[in-house]
Amino acid sequence: MYTDKAVRLVLENGMVFQGRSFGAEKMTSGEVVFNTAMVGYPENLTDPSYEGQILTLTYPIIGNYGVPANNQVDGISDFFESERIHVNGLIVQEYSREYSHWNAVKSLDEWLREENVPGIYGIDTRMLTKVLREKGSMLGKIVYDDADDIPYYDPESENLVDKVSCKQIIEYKQGEKKVVLVDCGVKHNIIRQLLSKNLHLIRVPWDYDFSGIDYDGLFITNGPGSPDYCGATVEHLRKAMAGDKPIFGICMGNQLLAKAAGAKVYKLKYGHRGANQPVRKAGTNTCYVTSQNHGYAVDDKTLDGDWLPYFVNMNDATNEGIRHLSKPFFSVQFHPEAAAGPTDTEFFFDDFVKLL
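Above: the chain's sequence. Below: its structure in token form.
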């Protein structure tokens, strides 16, 4: 019989949700956000873009397929999106202790304990999500009834990209064409996709001046927090944009490319996080269902005449990508590599490789 401790989720607006603890028994704080995907919690928990956040999963039953082994080849995980869990905490409605899957080796509870990440279940995640949609993403904390309180932690008070980016150059030598990957918090499936195209990948830290590298293409990755902390990346991108070598960006890469082009970026009310976000290619009726995880968006109105919106979100009409009118520069706000989510837009990796 399990005797999980009583635990509370306290939002900065004063709302309190009572629940039970699983995973690590510790207090935590961060920005409370929600993801609407039905599956994919191993991928989501290890996505560096969730650094500093407390993740709410709207699908009601979580944990039923366990957690796979962290097998790696050349430092790239087979099933995870990075080397560790990045969320500060996990919120679910019902936690399933019994799990069954062909590659599961442990329970979600065991994994969270190993990574020292707390979870809380028994929460009305539907009500919590409605609050976040109406009020916007907000700070929250997970605390125990019999423990001292902790202050609210605002992840946007620090440069999260610097926390999750690689600290030195990492090379994956698999092909002749060289691509510099600017690591702002890259998901492993982005690396898997690029390596599957037989590329020589040069992964550099977010603030690295790559102008001295002889490369065929430039790739800017996803990442957590505010893009305003990445001024160094923007300056390096502007230098690269003076030339004609292909540039492709995903998620934060879209925002940083836009900032380098002179556009402005703003924070969304509650962001886009899930595997069912519909986007439309600008100027057409072609639509795709995409995987997304971001809290900021590009302001289309601030793009200059050399750039055009590439995609638009069908739910709220926000920007989902940009492209240059004459040069091989483009980016998307969604995740073509999915993990977890639909693979409808994987062709963007092929489009990028064809430009090299």
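The first helix runs from residue 41 to 45.
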